Amino acid sequence: MSVFRRVRDITVANLNERLEQSQDPVRLIDQFLIETRQEIMEAEKLHHQYSGHTKQLKSQVDQARAMSSKREEQALLAVKAGEDHLAKLALQEKMLYDEKIEQYSGLYAQSLESLQELENQLHELKTEYQTVYSKRQYYYARMETLRLQQRMNQRMNGYGAQDVPKMFHRLEDQVSGMEWEARSLRDLRKAGQDIAGQVGSTIQSTLDQELSRLKQKLNKAGEE
């Protein structure tokens, strides 16, 4: 049974599936990283507590073994001295320490196993964190590329190369219209000058005719 209960809503097992369905993968990955980081901190805290507890259990086992060995030596000395009563007392106390060794050795072994399991889980969490963090960098780069591409598309909207010919066609029509107006005004002024010249010639011819008529009249008056 795991000594550390996982509490994350998102795990590596379902992260890829949720990334495919997410419109904002970076935000989803950030949520995973936050939850994983919190879990790592909890695991490190629990590891510290387990480590201290395991050391205490080992200390109890070591102390019981030392006392058991000491009482056995005392029992031997008492036997050599012919003090069987003292030897029995020492052996009786040794038996208590031996029982303590057996009890605490079981607890120590169990705690040591749990500590190793927790260390493995902690290592797994840190590996997951680093792996997903690297994936976040990749998805962030992709999202940034997409964002910049969208901005470029918005900026270039309506300014494509395909509109350049239309722009020059409109400019050509505008310039041609201005040129036609200029030619029309020039032709009109020229026509006015021609008409004025024609009018002047007509008047001059009329004057010449009138002068000739007056001369003829004078000649007839002289002959009378």
UniProtKB/TrEMBL annotation:
Coiled coil as UniProt keyword: yes
Entries under InterPro entries matching the protein: PspA_VIPP1
Keywords attached to this entry: Coiled coil
Coiled-coil region: 101-135
Family according to the record: Belongs to the PspA/Vipp/IM30 family.
Record's protein name: Phage shock protein A
Lineage: Bacteria, Bacillati, Bacillota, Bacilli, Bacillales
